[in-house]
Amino acid sequence: MTLQNKAVMDYAEEAIIHTYNRFPVVLDHGDGVYLYDIEGKKYLDFAAGIAVCALGYNVPEYNEALKAQIDKVIHVSNLYYTTPMAEAAHLLTAASGLKKVFFTNSGTEAIEGAIKLARKYAWTRDNQSTDHEIIAMNHSFHGRSIGALSVTGNPHYQEAFKPLIDKVVFADFNDLEDVVSKINDKTCAIIMETIQGEGGIYPADPEFLRAVRRICDERDILLILMTSAKALGCGVPIGAFVAGEKAASALTAGDHGSTYGGNPLATAAACAVFDLFEKKQVVANVCEVGDYLGQKLNALAEKYSCIKEVRGMGLIRGMEFDRPVATIVARCIKRGLLIISAGTNIIRFVPPLVIGREHVDEMTAVLESVLAELSE
Fold first, then answer.
1. Architecture category of domain 3-55+281-375 in CATH
2. CA-to-CA distance for 283 and 111, rounded, in angstroms?
3. What pTM, to 2 d.p., does this model score?
4. Are 375 and 306 in contact (CB under 8 A)?
């Protein structure tokens, strides 16, 4: 560690509340799928700002879209309409197949809004009854505000902040029988991730999802799946929850709000992201390179007995070890590879969605060199 890096880190720690154990890296700029620290050291990025920077870094079209909006207006509040907000809303409804959007500043805020919508929907439907329950999943993670913590299925995150909101019941992910056993006449919503991230990179079984969707439709229960943030803005803070017409109509003027949510800069970023996803054929790349990533990780699992399992889909993958992964992560960073963990024993791979096979090969070579070193 150089004095220059240490000076910046010490300066930051003097003024920032210590809620993150940051890695000893001071990042300065990025280009493509690489990041560079303040001294010019190059890092292959397989973390993408925790699954945010889907397009990578220093993308000219994205940058120009933001610069153009900055030259117009950044914020006007939700008391008025703006063209970027309207366009981003239509892009999001078209992508989701749903009808109405509420823009937030983060994924946590999107969860908060979705919880409020579910409770207001049931309150209206059931003659202003306030005793409704929400079913959430064990090992889930939805954010760190009080509402989001309340539906997060991990006591570790909750213990110091109780009491949380009540009437939340937890069921086992991918266990339809357990979910059904928790449903009663007071159930107003079921909330889950389609891939549990912090919980260890566990994808939802498609049959499980379809069955829960069918049950929710039959019993007039809201299924909370369509909350979004992360790559929606590719670095500019923006989130959203999207709902069908019937559910969305439960929220009326004054029920919910956000001063910054859906501001012109954030929604201009979202519009640029949708445009570039199509132009760069990002989804097709995720399918192709994601399969290749899975193959390379599985090959490592066959070679090194310390790897217990590889799971995930597309370019979201988890590699579970029989030991804590902190040392592996730290050594990879020293060798110019940014990876992160999910829990204690799992490495989480969430690279920019524009990576190529050559970047997977580069990552695999670094990771294998570390594993080989630790196996000696």
1. Alpha-Beta Complex (3.90)
2. 25
3. 0.95
4. yes
